[in-house]
Design a protein that fits this description.
255 residues, alpha/beta, 10 helices
């Protein structure tokens, strides 16, 4: 008897490595994961036609269907598995909480057969630095044809507002807890950016078992953009360090 394909969602905050994880999952021959399909413009749809541009006739049809019949779009397009063993989509917290996608959110909550991959970035300071750098440069992801030879981009120093930094950490922490409660009735797998980047970690292998696919070595076609040392990119690092040492987030200074 054939096993029904695993349907899953990746839920996360911005700048937690979701594009990296999605790239890794899409390197598996029996699995596909859609990208930013609930962003203002449809991006990252991968279906039986392959990657669909929003400017193609198919892409425009998909976006129209998403906007007019979002639950049908979720069921009939995003979760159409074909010959795949697992089919999924990544959705950020703030996208799911938009009123325009409330029917999608309700549908996901009601369907307990959908598995949830909860992606976090343990180091909240590095997540914030990544978000600020992406906003300043306009570069959210770098794709390389040969990641081994791709040069690292020059570091641009930034100034972090300390109070805003702690507010951001607290808000992301609250969102993580809120979405754990939302999907407490679903099968859930917690995964971290640090875990998927650590070659000695078993997280990617365990994740494949959770998604009920044959285990395979996963690779990404995106380049890690984070810096090695926070003090090399944060102009007011001493101020940030002093402030965080007085809080529960002091551990973020260690990695």
């Amino acid at each position: 008897m054939s096993i029904q394909a695993t349907r899953f969602i990746i839920i996360c905050a911005a700048r937690t490595g979701s594009t990296m994880l999605r790239s890794m999952l899409n390197s598996h021959p029996r699995m596909v994961c859609h990208g930013e399909v609930f962003a203002p413009r449809l991006m990252g749809f991968v279906g039986i036609w392959g990657q669909s541009s929003i400017y193609s006739p198919i892409g425009q049809l998909l976006e129209k269907t998403r906007d007019e019949r979002p639950v049908d779009f979720l069921r009939d397009y995003l979760f159409y598995a074909g010959s795949y063993q697992a089919i999924g989509v990544k959705i950020k917290y703030d996208e799911l909480e938009q009123s325009r996608w409330s029917a999608v959110f309700d549908s996901l909550l009601a369907d307990r057969d959908i598995r949830v991959v909860h992606l976090r970035r343990e180091n909240r300071l590095r997540r914030l630095v990544s978000a600020i750098m992406a906003e300043l440069t306009g570069v959210t992801v770098v794709v390389a044809s040969n990641p081994q030879r791709e040069p690292r981009r020059p570091v641009r120093k930034i100034v972090i507002d300390v109070e805003g930094c702690i507010r951001d950490f607290t808000a992301v922490q609250a969102a993580e807890a809120r979405f754990r409660r939302h999907f407490s009735g679903h099968r859930t797998f917690e995964v971290s950016y640090e875990g998927i980047m650590d070659e000695s970690s078993r997280q990617l292998w365990d994740l494949q078992r959770f998604l009920r696919v044959e285990e395979a070595a996963l690779t990404a076609n995106t380049i890690k953009q984070s810096v090695d040392r926070l003090e090399d990119v944060i102009e007011n690092y001493s101020e940030v360090r002093y402030a965080l040492c007085q809080t529960e987030f002091a551990y973020c200074l260690q990695g």
